[in-house]
Amino acid sequence: MTHFYDAHQHFHFDALTPHRATIDADLRKAGVHRAVVNGTCEDEWPVVTALARHYAWILPSYGVHPWDCGNRSPNWQSALRTELVADPHAGVGEIGLDRWIIDGVKPGDPRLTGLRVASMEEQADVFAWQFALAAELDRPASIHCVQAWGALLDILKMTGRPERGFLLHGYAGPVEMIPAFTSLGAHYSFNIQLLEPRHAARLENFRQIPLDRLLVETDAPAKAPPPESNRFPLGTSASGSEINHPANIIFAYEPLAALRGVPLETLAVQVEENFLRLFL
Ligand SMILES: [Zn+2]
């Protein structure tokens, strides 16, 4: 049986809470061995810890996401270090840079309700500190980047980096930057959403990425496949979008294998090796 690994998701998010038992059973049936569950702000960290104790397939990761950067508490740094020291397998993430929330978001977008949007400078400081902590403890860092690829590369070059490498989740940067990121230790996770026609250029990136740096992700509960191909329907979230079931990971492997021209089983063995090297 093929073993599947989800490099990036959020099992603890409210949209999945009523479905936890179903999802757990479906993941076992589907052959999903491990998934990295990313806490994105201080309030979420203890929830992720509790879930990781309960579900053996969870690899917890803790970080301050760029969207949550402006709302961090005064002692967020010691709280983050405490979480990481308590679990030698915990990663750092989701951390990163997001220029879209500063100059791309439409005013009144409900996703930003209650958030103080941090400037790029503030985001960069908070990201660089967390990435340095990942380097110090040699933990896998899971990075979110939207419209800030040059700034990200500058920080990655300046600071120490985790020896095991780091993940650029759902990589959507320019194809020309892949060699530079790869030389610094980047791994890249493919999301089934990249198959949408509007993401054709991003899909092309995944032909160029070295096979030993490829991973696969759902980003569940976000980014559900279109309803007609969503084989694990969970209904819609409070915001009205289709909820993405983490077991949809199995449907992301097939198109990636086709894109790379390798059999599914060959890809799965390679992704397993990459996942275990980076995250365990
Ligand atoms: Zn995420």
Keywords:
280 residues; eight-stranded parallel sheet; 39% helix; globular; binds zinc ion
Structure in words:
The protein is an alpha/beta fold. Helix content is 39%, strand content 17%. The chain is built from 10 helices and 8 strands. It has helices at 20-30, 45-54, 76-86, 100-103, 120-137, 149-158, 178-184, 200-208, 249-260, 264-279, and strands at residues 4-9, 32-39, 58-62, 91-98, 141-146, 166-169, 186-191, 214-217. Strands 1-2-3-4-5-6-7-8 form an 8-stranded parallel sheet. Helix 3 links the parallel strand 3 (58-62) and strand 4 (91-98). The longest helix has 18 residues, at 120-137. The radius of gyration is 17 Å and the shape is globular. The mean pLDDT is 95. The structure holds zinc ion. Residues 8, 10, 38, 94, 219 line the site of zinc ion.
- The whole-angstrom Rg is 17 Å
Poorly predicted parts: none
Please give the alpha-carbon distance between the first and last residues.
21 Å
- Output the number of helix runs: 10
Shape category: globular
Proportion of residues in helical segments: 25-40%
Unique bound compounds: zinc ion
Average of pLDDT: 95
**Could you describe the largest sheet, including whether it forms a barrel?**
8 strands, parallel
Share of residues in strands: 15-25%
How are the strands ordered across the major sheet?
Answer: 1-2-3-4-5-6-7-8
Decide which structural class fits the backbone. Answer: alpha/beta
How many DSSP-defined strands?
A: 8
Encode the helix/strand succession as letters. Answer: EHEHEHEHHEHEHEHEHH
